[in-house]
Amino acid sequence: MADDSKVKCGPCEYKRKSERARKWCTECEEGYCNECVKDHELHKILRDHCVISINDYLKIADISKIHQRCNTDGENFEYFSPSQDKIFCFKCLSTSFVGPKDIITVKEALHSSNSIDDVSNLETKLDDLLKEIKHRIKCHEESAEYIDDKVDRIICKIKDIRNKINKKLDKLEARAIDDLKHNAHVKSMIEKHHILKERKKEAREIKRNIALTKEYASDKSIFIFSRRVLEPIDEMKKTLNPMMNV
């Protein structure tokens, strides 16, 4: 709630005086100090105005500022169309297509209208609207829960299918590995690979012996050695020939 000390008396401000307002006229939309409100009540044209306390005004000040003036032109609403059940400010009325016979002042409309009934009707409509909104929110929440539950079930089903697929793939992989290990061709390749490694080892040993013989042995020993190693070298070549086709 706003500070009531900030609401000043309108007539006093016009006289360049600063007095705190004690009353508020909802028609004039102006505050009055205790002295000026007496003058306000003296004028016949102002006697039917609604004058309330500043505390009561502050309770509706923000609402009043929003709804008493036209959002487009900032003018007070002064005219009413009964057929359209619509209020107009002067500027809006001048640009509307409402006929003059269908326009009365807001004050005239008040005499033929019951404000209490109008507010009650608004409250009823608002209550119905709130019930509808509440119902729709509940429906949306139930739909959201249903969707969430359905999504969870789909995710669980996908996970279950994935697990089954993974288990099946694991079995296929194990079977494939087992088949490869027992395959005759694979066995043959493994055996050939083992023989080749042995021949490689033997060839390196012969090469090492040749190097040592060349460096330290006599010519006779080299001659004899070179003839002796020809036989195992030829034998290794014969062994390698069948292994050329992997």
TrEMBL record:
Record carries keyword Heme: no
Which residues are in the B box-type domain? 4-54
Q: Which UniProt keywords apply?
A: Metal-binding, Zinc, Zinc-finger
UniProt keyword Zinc, yes or no: yes
CDD domains (alphabetical): Bbox1
Origin, by domain of life? Eukaryota
GO terms of molecular function: zinc ion binding
Q: Which Gene3D superfamilies match?
A: Classic Zinc Finger
Q: What is this protein called?
A: B box-type domain-containing protein
